[in-house]
Give the backbone structure.
Amino acid sequence: MRKLLLSSLALTSLVSLLAVQLGRAQQKSATETSYAKARPVLEAGIKAMGGLEALQAITAVTREMTGTRNDEGQGMQPVFPRVPVPPQTNRPRIKSVRDMSGQRIYDELDDVIFGGQPLKLRSALTGQTGWAVNDLSKNLRVIPPASLNNARAGRFRRYPESLLLTAWNRPEVLRWLGEGEVEGRKQQVLSFADSDGTEVSLYFDTRTSLLTKTEFLNDDPVLGDTVLETIYSDWRPVEKVMLPFRITDRIGGMLQQELRASSITLNGKLADSLFTMPEGYAKFEPPPPGPNVKKLADDVYSVLGGYNNLVVVFKEYVLVVEAGGSNRSSQAAIVEIKKLAPDKPIRYLVSTHFHFDHLSGVRSYIAEGTTIVTTPSARGVIERAAAATHLMRPDALSRNPKAPIFEVMAGNKREFDDGVRRVELYMISSPHVGEMIIAYLPKEKILFEGDVLDIPEAGVPPAGDDTADLAKQIEKLGLQVETIVPVHGRVGTIEDLRLALSNR
């Protein structure tokens, strides 16, 4: 009787345990359910490319690509209204090498910037080092070790064969988003978080299971909260796998770049020289983080960074030329400017031209109530930037919205003069952009210009048609220039301009 009672109790406990486990199985969390729906979609996408084993067997991929860049944020004039295919600005030629087994990366770009400046760039990432060289100016920049992992994640994310393997190896962050549609084709959409923190959405064609596109949200300084897309098409067999021969990039729905592969080679032998830091180049380390103030003359400064500016302290106010490459950097620059002249308002900001990267810090100055002196063509872009929504990363203007105050140059010259300091603005037409402002300080013989002469930290400055035009404008206007402050690069002299033209 005692044994029977014990057996009965054991059976009851077992039934209770099974019931609890069954209840748990039936009550999966939303996270578990989302993962369970996403996993087979990713599996099908990998299978459509040739299968997991075939992708894992790829040791190296080399791509040769050419294409066009249709960038609405560049060109001669702004695009109003926005159109799906903006005017063409560049024709890049690209070589891309991915060493899957060694986690090494090599990229090569041959192009001409709008305005005529040639580009010939190479860069590489290995396990411990990273470097980038400009083969025309003969300078070499070392990529900080702390930046290597994030840079590597972004570049491997570029192509489907490494992207899908990355997602496969991070199952804990794989999530189902739902069903969608791309150009009339039904899609299954999932997402994963990459190692650099980027949340990437993956769209798989319901019919073929091939990857249609990726997208992620971005806080664009001019366009606001927007979506960046990379679209894959023209899938073809390459040995045992399927790969796209056409890659299209869009920002906010607008075409930005379209590349077509002329060849894709798998598992070829890679020369170690591709990834070896070259010798014989002028080497420089990146500047320390944060704004770096350089005094040029009494009451004349430049806040240096990726986008330099010019700061002139007048008796009653401060004038700044160029906003900077981001709202974060311009906010930091404003802090430094207020240290230089704590009792004076930043009354004027000169925005040299409409190109989006040069207006990317303008919102910080609008929040300050600064009057923006600019060209007629730049006004509409600045108004768009001021009205853009920034919910992901609210800035000073988001917290205190206000309309921009403008002084649009009506003629070709505008002067600021308080009897001690004098700044002359000239609006010119350049091969780089239809309307551009250059700033000249006659007493100090300083010229500030954007884009038409980039002076690298080391090596010879490159020169294009726009550089030659700058030299003609200086002569035509009778400017006695000694110091040149470029938006990009180091503060130089008139000799840097002459050197660039002599090596053109």
